[in-house]
Amino acid sequence: MTASDLRQRVRDRSVIIFALVVPLALMFVFNLTLGGAADQSLDPVTVAVSAPADDTLAPILIASLTQVDGVDVTVDEVSADEARDRARSGTAELGVVIPEGFGDAVRQGEETVVAVTEGDGSGLESDILLTVMQGVLAQLSAGAVTAAAGAQSGVPAEDLGALAQQAATQAAGLNLTEGEAANEQLSIAGALVAGQAGLFLLFTVGFGVLGLIAEREQGTLARLRSMPMRPGLIVTAKGLVSFILGFVATGVLLTAGSIFFGVSFGSPVAVAVLIVCAVAAATSLMFIIARAARTAEQASALQTILALVLAISGGAFFPLTATGALDTVLGLNPIAAFTRGLGITSGGGGLGDIGVPVAIMLTFAVVGLAASRLVPDRGRDL
């Protein structure tokens, strides 16, 4: 019975369309829409700078502009008026004017102002450079604070200048070390593939279990029940059809997503376990719908509503953030657990690391199957 139903479903074009064609198409569309945000590049920037020729600290500020990774910065040293004019005319994104006596003011702990003019074409790149300059100026201003503190502490006046310069030019005591995101996080492309695979899994498994309603409407279910076998075998066969279709379709989607979008989900064995658990959870939900719906139209409507609710709350379209009890509730979503599990395997985790997502999905499956026996059978045939 399972083999016969599978052959029938494979011949049905709607199964191929909903299980493979539509989700793959959506993956490509979303990747074109969101992929640019992940691969955004920064444009070259021109900065017109006016600085005193004999100042010893001004070059430190200027050099910081050319040392920003990812931003191609061209520094043109011009007069103060020209620096402002070039920014206003748009030939430079920033015009920076360092005043006379800048270095001496820092050494003596006196206030000094660096004037910055933003051009009309300034954007993200200019904001980055402004942030860098603010950081450097904050470090240099530490010289003024040090000099003032030294004077109050009785440091000789002839030593204040050297003390202030040392504080202004000394490298920060903090180091930035590049690391990796937590291993439960997928890349944008990875989350897109996992989310769409989870969403359409909820539609794919419906072709098996929800076939009971179609069989009932066509009258073939009554003939099947009249055959010399236990009625539970009919339900089991439909469940197996859902399980096989869901497992194969989800595996194909993840494999295709890995190939087309350059995503690695890690250990194939661990990923297969996650797929099995996700399919079990989705199939249990179909049993509830099969008992709650009177007609195929009602079943289709319920399936669509529940699939979209679980997909949206599970982050299939965009990531959701929550805290407290709401975060706990969202974490019980089988699609969220499936995506989380793939994030763990993508980060190098194995079978021993996916216990929590597996437990969530299997618990959902058990609760769903139990609930399907408690829901009144509106079709009176199961």
TrEMBL record:
Its main location: membrane. Keywords: Cell membrane, Membrane, Transmembrane, Transmembrane helix. Residues 13-372 form the ABC-2 type transporter transmembrane domain. Gene3D superfamilies: abc type-2 transporter like domain. The keyword Cell membrane applies. It is found in: Cell membrane. InterPro entries: ABC-2_transporter_component, ABC2_TM. GO terms for molecular function: ABC-type transporter activity. It holds the Pfam family ABC2_membrane_3. One of its GO terms (cellular component) is plasma membrane. It is a multi-pass membrane protein. The chain crosses the membrane at residues 15-34, 188-214, 235-263, 269-289, 301-322, 354-375. The keyword Cell membrane applies. It comes from the Bacteria. This is ABC transporter permease. It comes from Pengzhenrongella frigida. The lineage of its organism: Bacteria, Bacillati, Actinomycetota, Actinomycetes, Micrococcales.
